[in-house]
Design goal:
The protein is α+β, with helices and mostly antiparallel strands. The protein contains nine helices and 19 strands.
Length: about 325
Amino acid sequence: MEDAVMELVTKPLRDEGPLPLLVTPPEGAAGAALADALPAIRAAAEAHLHAAGGLLLRGFSLDGPDAFRSFAAGFGHDLLSYEFGSTPRSAVTQGVYTSTEYPPHQHIPLHNEQAYARDWPMKIWFYCQQAAPEGGETPLADSRTIYRAVPEPIRARFAERGLMYVRNYGNGLDVAWEQVFGTQDRGAVEAYCAGHGITCEWKPDGDLRTRQVCQGTARHPETGEPVWFNQAHLFHVSNLEPEVRATLLDLVDEPDLPRNVYYGDGSPIPDADLDAIRAVLAAHTVVFPWQSGDVVMLDNMLTAHARTPFKGPRKVVVAMAQAGRAQ
């Protein structure tokens, strides 16, 4: 079958809504190579990605991370490196990374990739090489729906005041700055920060602190729709279990917490506001089981993603492309 004439089957995976849109090969072409379907998938993404927020490509064959890299790069943008990351990842091949390397028992809450920064990928792909035998889903949520559902007073404060993310690296408590910035050269770190609106400070013990004021909400550059676009619920100290929070605050002063977030002027965000936001995220979470070989393509501004705890082996890798930037 020629690439240009492959007629894909598209339908919502769930009766409750369009996210994600299921895209499969035509009847009689099960197991078709994802590379052969690329022109048709690009057309499907052009037609449906903004409306649905995410595509689930299922029933195709894909031969490992290098093939995945070629597929993701085939959408016309260079794949992005994982710069200024907030979680541990490892490079699998050029432009392809492991998903966040947190222990299997931990839940990773919903978030838009790198929404804690002023630069982020517009597109993100997940390739499930091996689905976990139990759990390990990648839940999704529509960031437009989240924006509308967050209580208006909270939404207005986030939109008008912005957010200041404060990070203290390493010290056995968080990812080392050398890993986050991909260098051991302090001058290179300072240059990166200067170019990205990040205030950096070398503390007396040699560790690094950064502060960056970012958006609390955003507007999609192509659709014009407002979206909930931040990671306050992840960075805020209230995200920690009470015992962990108390232990950390016994070890370090609040300014030295591994990560925290404030309003853009540095004033505190009440715990109750973050609790309300987390309740909205939980209410609008979409969960579906992975099948080995699945690929999910998301518009990163329109759709948030997460990870559920799992048991047994699981292998999901990630690629990102098309840089977006705060306006």
